[in-house]
Amino acid sequence: MRLYPTTDLLLHLFRREAGFFKNRLLEYLYPTRCLICERLGALLCEKCRVALPSIDQDRACRLCGAPLGHVVCTECTTVYERTRFPFTAACCALEFDASSRRLILGYKDGGERRAAPLLAGLIVEALPRKWLHSIDLITWIPADDSALKRRGFDHMELIACSVAGRIGRPSRALLIKHDADDQRLLGRANRRRNMQGMFSYRERNRSYAAADPSGVGSKIKQTRILLLDDVFTTGATLTAATEKLLGEGASEVRVATVCRVW
């Protein structure tokens, strides 16, 4: 039985006000603090925002996103040639230092989900404008089961959805990441070995018709993908994920991350 419009309106107002007071109570009990310096007021205070170690994209390596890589890049065997990484290009917003580390860990391990749009904004600001014409679909490095249980959410999914909304492209979970040793605890060579067979393709994506408005058909054939992750260290994780996507038919994969270890 449908309620009268006046009653509907009252219920709507009640729910809205209840949510407002709930948020105010939570803010009173657990006030918002800067993820970097813990100053009260915002997730990222103005002082810390200005001091972020932003990467100058005009000076960064076009292949791996390393700062100053346009001059000399120790991460790529030959300048701008795809002899090391399978992805077309990489873009990283920040250098990985003590402040950016606190920002990332406060979000994904501290459970501060409200920081997802903030981190997405950093990625979008760093993306070369010409990339926007070369992206059909956005996906991300997914959390494995153990990380999902520990954190309660897939931190890169929230960022990817926010990036997708900002640049007007669809996002979709394409990969499954299997449990393995924490990459942060491994050296360069062991990271590569740890990633072997790490990703599989989500079978449900194979059933999408080629007429999908997002342009993604069976096996993402001929799709240009933007792959997101939080930190680019050696590139082992991004390489393994890219190889899986290319193997499933993607025509091109570009990479974007919040931070770059350098």
CATH architecture assignment of the largest domain = 3-Layer(aba) Sandwich
How many helices? Answer: 8
Number of strands: 6
**In CATH, what is the class of the largest domain?**
Alpha Beta
SSE topology:
Layout: H1 5-29, H2 46-50, E1 89-95, H3 98-108, H4 116-126, E2 137-140, H5 145-151, H6 155-167, E3 175-177, H7 188-194, E4 199-201, E5 224-232, H8 236-247, E6 252-260
Parallel strand pairs: 1-6, 2-5, 5-6
Antiparallel strand pairs: 3-4
Helix pairs in contact: 4-6
What does this structure look like?
The protein has about 260 residues and is an alpha/beta fold. The protein contains 8 helices and 6 strands; from the N terminus they run ααβααβααβαββαβ. The strands form 2 sheets. It has a 4-stranded parallel beta sheet with strand order 1-6-5-2. Strands 3-4 form a two-stranded antiparallel ribbon. α8 (about 235-245) links the parallel β5 (about 225-230) and β6. α4 crosses α6 (about 155-165). It starts with a helix and ends with a strand.
Brief characterization of the structure:
This protein has 262 residues and is of the alpha/beta class.
